[in-house]
Amino acid sequence: MRPPVCAERGQWQREVTVRIGILGPLEVRDQAGQPVRLGGARLRALLIRLALDPGRTIAAERLTGDLWPEAGPADASNALQALVSRTREAFGLTGTGRPSCR
């Protein structure tokens, strides 16, 4: 895992290398090659959608449209944030300590 990187507007991000196989059954492996367990079809769909555009920023509106092409949840923004949070948890990227950007 690379050290945290400061982003614009005081935000931070941490780069994590994973291997995602999307041809056939979804297969996700962490940096050590260990399988990462993902629960829920929507969570898997989010990860696949992100894998289709590696290294690119995808607008939240685009992601919500892709994940909920028909009538989505009442608050799609919060639903998307919850999915992103669950994805971070699956990769062990949760915690209260945030690196400072200096």
Task: Briefly say what this structure is.
With 102 residues, this protein is α+β, with helices and mostly antiparallel strands. It has helices spanning 41-51, 60-67, 76-90; strands spanning 5-6, 12-13, 19-21, 27-29. It is globular and about 40 Å long.
Question: How would you portray this structure in words?
Answer:
The protein has 102 residues and is an alpha+beta fold. The chain has a single domain, classed as Arc Repressor Mutant, subunit A (Orthogonal Bundle). The chain is 33% helix and 10% strand. The protein has three helices and four strands. Strands 1-2 form a two-stranded antiparallel sheet. A hairpin with a 5-residue loop joins strand 3 and strand 4 (27-29). Helix 1 (41-51) packs across helix 3. The longest helix is centred in the C-terminal third of the chain and has 15 residues, at 76-90. The radius of gyration is 14 Å and the shape is globular. The two termini are 20 Å apart. Mean pLDDT is 78; it is low at 1-7 and 96-102.
Compile the SSE list and pairings.
Layout: E1 5-6, E2 12-13, E3 19-21, E4 27-29, H1 41-51, H2 60-67, H3 76-90
Antiparallel strand pairs: 1-2, 3-4
Helix pairs in contact: 1-3
> CATH class, please?
Mainly Alpha
Specify the helix fraction band. 25-40%
Label the overall shape: globular
Secondary-structure content class: alpha+beta
* Spatial separation of the terminal alpha carbons: 20 Å
CATH-defined superfamily: Winged helix-like DNA-binding domain superfamily/Winged helix DNA-binding domain
The percent range for strand residues is 5-15%
The helix tally amounts to 3
